[in-house]
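Limitations
The structure tokens in this dataset are predictions for the assembled complex, not deposited experimental models. Users should treat interface geometry with appropriate caution, especially where small molecules or nucleic acid strands are included. An illustrative entry is reproduced here so readers can see what is and is not provided.
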Amino acid sequence: MVQRRTQDPTLRPSTAADPSAVHVAFEYLACATFWLLVGTTAGLIDALKLNWPDFLVVPWLSFGRIRPIHTNTVFWGWSSMALVGLALYVVARTSRAPLWSPTLSRISLVLWNAAVIAGLLTLGAGVTRGPQEYREWVWPVALTFGAGLVLNGVNAYMTVATRSIQEIYVSNWYILGAFCFLTILFTTGYLPFYQHGLGNVVIQGYYMHTAVGMWFGMLSLGIAYYAIPRILGRPIYSYALGVLGFWTNILFYTLIGAHHFIFSPVPWWLQTTAILFSVGMMVPVWAGGCNLLLTFRGASGVLRRSYAAPFLVAGIVAYVLVSTQGTIEAFRTSNIYWHFTNFTVGHSHFAMYGFVAFVIWGAAYGLVPRLTGAEPNPILVGIHFWLALVGYGIYVVSISIAGVLQGFSWVAGEAFIKSVEAAEPMWLWRTAGGVLMVASHLVFIVNLWAMRPRSSLMAPSASPAAEAST
Amino acid sequence: MSFHTSHRALVAFAFFGFLALTVLIAILPAVSVQNTPGIPGATARSELAEQGRAIYLREGCGYCHTQFVRDLPLDRPYGRATVAEDYANEDPPLPGTERTGPDLSNVAARQPSDIWHLLHLYNPRSVVPQSVMPGFPWFFEEKAAAAAGDVTVPVPPRFLSGQGQVIVARPEARALVAYLLSLRQPALQP
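Predicted assembly:
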């Protein structure tokens, strides 16, 4: 096959890409990116409201309504759709089989978009289950999303079941696992039988924490275990470490949600268990993170010239750092200074943006052009990278400083309003970072459009003759 | 049968392993604490306060205001430490994860004035100049003159758009204030 534009040296056109999987993956990425723009605009409005509280005084744009719109749209709209789009492609590719049913995943995409739209409208109208983070959607909305989740899970499972090779590549462990985990997690979060009074708090800790790690985290790792070796053209540093990371993640991560309610009436043994296993998390984090980063060893040339690799490196480095930060935050002593402060907001953006979004972008830039044969302008990819990196760097650093200042003010016993005044300048910096982040998303839209599948470009890679010539 | 080659074994083990851990770490502990009885002698919320709580949930107040006092020196200003019994009749309870504004577990004891709360809801800057809390002017009505039974709010003129109006609390504002004034920690039996 004639290599088309080769601005990124790591891009070798894929020879066995299943065109329908490519189209499905792209449709997911396109919808996800739309929700990225909506979700981060909502976040930016919220940030501005802390600087100018009398800005946009409208019921459906008030802080308390926009906040769940921001979090739920970037969680279920952007991150979930983008990760699953890429994951479906990875599952098909590593199984050496076509996607079992592209139709099933298209139905899921319709369901997911319907759920995100309905979620946006209901939350804007104040129809909510209350501030129970990431499960604010009323149950019909959640059920619509859940139906799409199960259909996609079945599709991924059946694709692996019909694989043409014996081994199940480690990416599929993480991806199939993630579908199982979120199904259980959603069901547990929404069933009411054990959620009266304090029971609700126990479930909330488990739910909000496990959603991040066992859905977004697992999918991101699964995709990274495919994308990094693929763009480097070399195997993963240690396959066994990937497997170890998978099982230890399940064992440790599932048990640590209660660390969001340290010093609460939640049973003390549950809090202590959560803190202990938060320390245990250092095993899968450092094993997984170093494993992925060591795969780059000796490939610094690629890192300099590839535009996809920097996103993946930044994403994995953020994964290791943010998880280590999370462990430190779980301790009782650090809880005294950091809990309830903006430090937590910095931590969650570090994870969902620095790790998850960067892995999505790295995988999108590293995989999509090789499937569609259409590359984005490398200069624009560079602009995206630096706007996003500098933007979220400013965001996380400033909001974390705000958190520290709040914590110190409270511990010093000052009047509460002093902690608001202390944080205010940092909130302005946070907004500035947020503007850069949103700007980077506009550049990503241009780049994604440049990578779109075109029928004329798709034809050669799908024909057997083209495969034979590579 | 190996996880490396059997997708059935792999998925079944991951699914049921995670399910078992979920039962152990979330569902069983939740079951064991969900029926904690309330504090004896605590007064039940009025119907108006209950409506106010629904508005509190709707407007997302709980994203910035906790109802969760820890047994720590820095939490002393907010009242006694929260116990399981405090959440007994709360569906959902509102411990919260962020304290951009102060904890409200015991706010009625700290700030018992309904007029203060009405002013604060109309525009927080009218009583706390440095506040960043959103105002809720749509819970109030601008009228030329108050009618019988109206609750008027003495909003300082610079927070008003026009001249010569009175600001009257709508039912939403009255319900929300009733809820805030119901937030008073009952004493624990020794």
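Some entries come with short summary sentences. For this one: Chain A touches chain B through 81 residues (CB under 8 Å).
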